[in-house]
Write a structure and sequence with these properties.
about 270 residues; 10 helices; about 5% strand; globular; cell membrane; transmembrane; transmembrane helix; Probable membrane transporter protein
């Protein structure tokens, strides 16, 4: 039964992560930490193992989602690689920050971060995107209604934001899309579907780098990987298909409430040690 729960966890996390470009780690890591008190197979799991395992799973979630989005022709390759120029080094820095964190401090910091992410998801639709940068990368996209949308950014700004996103990825075991997608939409004027698809490619690349680092540190539990992996692969494909056909407002509303509850629970668990 416990293995089935982990399989379903991988599936649900990947579906939500792929729909919104989050990567799924923002659900997997807190779930592993919270379930450790109830499931014997997770007993004694450390933040380092939860993060390392999540990042390895994210390679397959990111690859699965990216392949699906490539077929839909929604991935902005150039932007993804520019952002990865920052997120790659940032991921390595995040891994270094993670290695000495004890469980209680990790839970408090991560819980606070999750509540912050839920707030970003709550307010992002009320904030008008900035006008695209006149210098730097300029891109155009024609949506399904035939309307041409122009977006753009300065590469240095993109790399700096990518570094912060990568650092959070390596530190918390999340894909970083929870920060990158809103930044792409609000700061750079990306169409939401392009932002999500491009974010998944960046997440895939960053996850490779940071998971290899965690692997070298011995922070990966291969039994957890085997349990989570099938759901993560299938969920990545399903999430991309769902994203294509729906407006994601309902999913965003559900997820942000879910994240607030998880964040508060993690903070409480970290403060009380229970």
């Amino acid at each position: 039964m416990e293995w089935i729960i982990l399989l379903l966890l991988g599936l649900v996390a990947a579906i939500l992560g792929s729909i919104m470009g989050l990567g799924g780690g923002i659900i997997v890591v807190p779930a592993l930490m919270m379930l450790s008190g109830y499931m014997p197979i997770l007993h004694g799991i450390t933040p380092q193992i939860a993060v390392g395992t999540s990042l390895l799973i994210m390679i397959f979630t990111g690859l699965s989602s990216t392949l699906a989005y490539l077929k839909q022709k929604k991935v902005d390759y150039q932007s993804a690689f520019i952002f990865f120029g920052g997120s790659g080094p940032g991921a390595l820095f995040g891994v270094w920050l993670n290695k000495d964190l004890n469980t209680d401090i990790f839970l408090i910091i991560f819980g606070t971060f999750i509540v912050l992410v839920s707030f970003v998801l709550m307010v992002r639709k009320y904030i008008l995107p900035l006008k695209p940068a006149k210098k730097g990368v300029q891109r155009t996209y024609v949506n399904r209604a035939g309307v041409e949308i122009t977006y753009g950014y300065h590469p240095i700004i993109g790399i700096l934001i990518g570094f912060v996103v990568g650092m959070c990825s390596g530190l918390f075991g999340i894909g970083g899309g929870s920060l990158m997608v809103p930044a792409m939409i609000l700061l750079f004027g990306f169409p939401p579907h392009i932002a999500v698809a491009t974010s998944m490619l960046m997440i895939f690349l960053s996850a490779i780098l940071s998971s290899v680092s965690h692997m070298a540190l011995g922070n990966i539990d291969w039994l957890y990987v085997l349990a989570l992996l099938p759901g993560a692969w299938i969920g990545g494909q399903l999430g991309a298909a769902i994203n294509r056909k729906m407006q994601s407002d309902a999913i965003v509303n559900l997820l942000r409430v879910f994240l607030i509850i998880i964040g508060i629970r993690l903070i409480y668990q970290g403060i009380t040690g229970s």
